[in-house]
Amino acid sequence: MTGSRGGTEVSRFCRQCQQLEAHKDLDWPSGQVLRDDEAQRTLYDALCGGTRPLPPRYQLRVLKELVRIIEEAIEDWDVHGVSDDLMGCLTELMAQPLPDEMVAVQQKSYVTYTLSLLDNLSGPNSRPQITMLESRNLIAAGGTTGLRTWEAALHLGQWLCRETTALNTGDHGESNTTHSITIKDKRILELGAGTGYLAILCAKYLGAAQVIASDGSDDVVATLPDNFYLNGLQDDERLTALDLKWGHALLGTEEAEWNGGRPVDVVLGADITYDKSVIPALVSTVATLFGKFPGVVVIIAATERNRETFEAFLEVCQRRRFVVDEVDDFDVPRRRHQGGPFYSDSVPIRICRISKT
């Protein structure tokens, strides 16, 4: 491939495509990089190969643009060309009927997130990734937002990855030890788990002893095992999906006590404060968890789309005499500095640690 910089450009672009980033947000490598044979092999493997294909409409649009860029960059067709594999994939897509756009947005697609902050902890030939089945452009008719992974979950996940890397390497860098946290060997409860991104991250990569992915939507809870399976966790007894409705008592199901009487060490929640109407029930559940597990650590991440909504959350916490401390050393990185997962840098995401006075 044309230099290490070219390889980095192509690798980054492939990771963005596998995450189904919007066309306008993709960082397209230059034509001089893309016309290289090795670059095109890498692109083919990422965009056309494998058992978890990109959605056909997305794949077609990306390949058309790639071929256009490559062809425009070719000065001598005896030296460079468009690979037969890429052209074959594009031709096949153009020949087959594609689903109507209204149908396509309702279909679930494979979305793969790369955990760039864990690269140093993985082997040279393995990149830590989480793959989900998501409906990226759809909120269910029932109002649930659990069909896709939202920005706050990705940002909170990156913070947890940074804390894990600091623990394993002893290099705390800019990490604020006041708010530092470790997931390793801890029992984790995720509230409003949605796709289960954080739960899977904790179970697969961060060394949690037990992880409960909970949600108040029966439909969301029913789909969580699919994402567990995609990440090789279908038989992992440490990871379970649970229906937990905020504001309701924590009751046992098959077991006499909730969670079999086992403690919870850390509670995680991301993008769960977006609706003012559910905040009292959410904080009520947090209060119940403090009462049941006095030493529990509660970490909430919130995308500040609406300042008023977040203020409502802080106000309810204050009435409960909870202390909300913001993690102030982990801002959303600029998109150009992100190595995966990729998420918007246009809106602040706040990570808060909640404690009981």
TrEMBL record:
Domain of life of the organism encoding this protein: Eukaryota
Record has Transmembrane helix as a keyword: no
A Pfam family reported for this protein in Swiss-Prot or TrEMBL: Methyltransf_16
GO cellular component: cytoplasm
Protein name (Swiss-Prot/TrEMBL): Methyltransferase-domain-containing protein
PANTHER family, alphabetized: HEPATOCELLULAR CARCINOMA-ASSOCIATED ANTIGEN, PROTEIN-LYSINE N-METHYLTRANSFERASE EEF2KMT
GO BP field: methylation
Originating species: Microdochium trichocladiopsis
